[in-house]
Design a protein that fits this description.
The complex is a heterodimer. Chain A is mainly α. Chain A has helices spanning about 5-15, 25-50, 55-75, 80-90, 90-95, 95-110, 115-120, 125-145, and one strand spanning about 1-5. Chain A is extended. In chain B, helix 7 (about 230-245) crosses helix 8 (about 265-275). The two termini of chain B are about 35 Å apart. The chains are: A mainly alpha, B alpha/beta. The interface of A and B includes residues 15, 22, 28 and 104 of A.
């Protein structure tokens, strides 16, 4: 076996980098902004719709998010959301519809392995780390607040 | 690893004298350090390829025997579809060769899934004694080399060599669920959905396998599974360099030097690595991964990959090139990236390998010239 030393590996990495096409960062940013912005605009539209129906802001966010999640899941099932993600990148992944996609995609994918070892075990394959570290971050922030003696109203909804 | 460029150190030409002395009754069938030469070159009497719809829209579509209409092929899972492709390609190759299953001594085949399950499920249906092969995407060359050794050694009359891969089965095992919304980097490659099968005979009409050079594992310290072309190029360079040293040949002795799935980025790196080591392959270098899809419009980034990539392109396109006389001698170098999800997640670098076989067009009845 030929294994490169650390120095050789570093040299080779630098050497191959010149062959790699540059990532289209600007194009990706613009597309992420447009796709993410569109999803957020739909979310805002839904929120306004529920508020016009008479719900106060705090109670209207729930159903608006639920509709976005359902939409994300439905589009994943129809095989459309991965195409949106390919174009929109983080713009499609970051809104809550992207979270729905991260749950629905493994559910679809691993249904063939059954409801326990397939869907049950794999459902949070992608979203799991987000949930885990989201909670860790929440605990850390709360600890900081307590240590600094800050009191609040219980955080954002 | 010293003094001789990044990869190609320790090359050694000339036959190993000890081996030659121990078997004085036979002509030595080992050349140099890593090459075997077949005294009675086995012939590829038939080949068949089955590909998915996306490959069927690529530039090589006309060369494939079967283009399926969808990736599930009416099966209940993608894995089943992959098995179906392997069986169909094998049956078709046998039919073209005019052989029955029971006449074949061994099936030497492989795929990319854990425990090469697709291969063994196909072998279960084909009911031919099976010897599973794995060196990731270099499996085709490994299968042809081992078949050559078996047949030249007199351990059989017919071997069936095959490889298959499926984009969706590979994606869900190695990467992410297929419906997950993610953006792939420009260095990423697209696993080919397809299977190729070859009937190799101790005698028969068709291109012959004259040499095989089995590669060593080369690891240049890259870790990114979305950049396999860059990781595998040094392994290909190493095997090509060693093959030429062992056989005392030059790149000019080959009409084509065909690599498996370095794709656009990896093959550019390979050409320059060889140039650094004094080998100019010029426009002889072709790459199956770079040829199978359109460079733009199919959204495959750097190109194709997978064992099905070299298997279908060789079974379809390269066999046609040889039989139509557009090339007489081809060096086929299949490249494999030997990582797994576990090694990648544990931060290991990617070990790579390349195996090579020499394919030569022979007119029926023509004697070998060595």
């Amino acid at each position: 076996m030929v294994q490169a030393s650390r120095e050789q590996a570093r040299r080779y990495q630098a050497f191959v980098r010149q062959y790699h096409p540059p990532r289209p960062v600007l194009r990706n940013c613009v597309l992420a902004f447009l796709v993410g912005g569109t999803i957020c605009a739909i979310g805002q539209g839904l929120l306004n719709l529920f508020m016009v129906q008479g719900l106060p802001l705090k109670e209207a966010t729930g159903p608006a998010l639920a509709v976005l999640v359902a939409m994300g899941a439905l589009l994943t099932g129809l095989g459309v959301y991965d195409d949106i993600g390919r174009i929109g990148g983080m713009g499609a992944a970051l809104p809550i519809s992207g979270f729905a996609n991260a749950i629905t995609a493994p559910a679809l994918e691993f249904k063939r392995e059954g409801y326990v070892f397939g869907i049950g075990q794999r459902l949070f394959q992608i979203a799991g780390p987000v949930v885990v570290y989201g909670m860790v971050a929440a605990v850390a922030m709360a600890t900081i607040r307590i240590v600094l003696g800050l009191t609040g109203t219980g955080g954002a909804p | 690893m010293d003094g001789r460029g990044p990869v190609l150190a320790e090359g050694e030409a000339g036959a190993d004298r000890r081996t030659a002395r121990r078997t004085p009754q036979r002509a030595p069938r080992r050349l140099g350090k890593q090459t075997v030469i077949f005294s009675h070159p086995p012939a590829i009497v038939s080949a068949a390829s089955v590909v998915g719809p996306m490959e069927g829209k690529g530039p090589l579509a006309e060369h494939f025997d079967v283009v399926t209409e969808n990736v599930l092929m009416g099966e209940k899972s993608w894995e089943r579809a992959e098995v179906r492709m392997m069986i169909e390609a094998s049956e078709l190759a046998l039919k073209k060769a005019g052989l029955q299953h029971r006449q074949v001594d061994w099936i030497l085949a492989g795929d990319l899934l854990n425990q090469i399950t697709c291969t063994h499920m196909a072998a279960r249906t084909l009911d031919i004694p099976a010897l599973g092969q794995f060196s990731a995407c270099a499996t085709l060359a490994q299968g042809l080399a081992v078949a050559g050794m078996i047949l030249d050694g007199g351990f059989g009359r017919w071997c069936l060599v095959g490889c298959c891969s499926h984009h969706d089965t590979a994606e869900r095992q190695y990467r992410l669920p297929t419906e997950f919304a993610s953006q792939r980097p420009p260095t990423a490659q697209w696993t080919v959905t397809g299977a190729g099968a070859f009937v190799v005979g101790a005698e028969g009409d068709g291109p012959v396998i004259t040499h095989a050079t089995l590669g060593r594992v080369v690891d240049m310290g890259l870790k990114d599974p979305y950049d396999m072309g860059s990781a595998m190029a040094p392994a290909a360079a190493d095997t090509i360099w060693q093959h030429l040293a062992d056989t005392h040949r030059r790149p000019e002795d080959y009409d084509l030097i065909v690599t498996g799935d370095l794709a656009h980025i990896g093959s550019a790196i390979l050409v320059d690595l060889l140039k650094e080591n004094g080998l100019d392959v010029g426009d002889r270098a072709l790459d199956c991964g770079a040829m199978i899809y359109k460079q733009s419009g199919q959204d495959v980034h750097a190109g194709g990959s997978g064992c099905g990539c070299s298997a279908t392109v060789v079974a379809g396109y390269i066999m046609n090139v040889l039989s139509r006389g557009n090339a007489r001698r081809v060096l086929l170098v299949c490249t494999g990236s030997l990582h797994s999800v576990t090694t990648y997640q544990q931060g290991e670098t990617i070990p790579c390998i390349a195996h090579a076989v020499v394919l030569e067009a022979r007119r029926p009845g023509q004697e070998e010239d060595r």
